[in-house]
Request: fold
Amino acid sequence: MEKTKLIPVLALVAIVVVAGCTGKGNEQGRLYGPLHWHVQLELETCGVAQGLPSFDPNRQEFYGTPHLHHHNDNKIHLEVPPGESILNSDATLGGFFRAINMPFSSETFMNYKNGDKCSNGAAGMVHFFVNGVENSEFGAHPIIDGERAKIVFG
Reply:
């Protein structure tokens, strides 16, 4: 094989090996630590920016569960220490919103349901975007390090 063709093949093998070491895509349906991934989150209802539920940092370190939480920073944190794991089905946007007790689905976001009216009288719908592209996975979307997620009701 020519050297110019061998380099991309070796790069692909390295990516597969690194992904396997982090547990991503394993056969057991779990992600294994150590993992520390973040998703930047933007929330909006009826044209108004919203935040995640806040907490007093003098009383607690995070809001949510040890594996899925935020630190008052509009970021989803997926943190799995060495020797621990999380179900792939929990390492999703739905898993994060369950962890912070905030409704999120294709039909409901925060206190709004599809068809509810905004103050301008227009009926709203829940929309979900990943890296600026509308996405239909909603709560089933896996948490992927470095992504930007936006949820809009309006």
User: Anything to note?
Assistant: The radius of gyration is 18 Å. Residues 3-21 form the longest helix (19 residues). The helical segments are 3-21, 93-99. The chain has a mean pLDDT of 87.
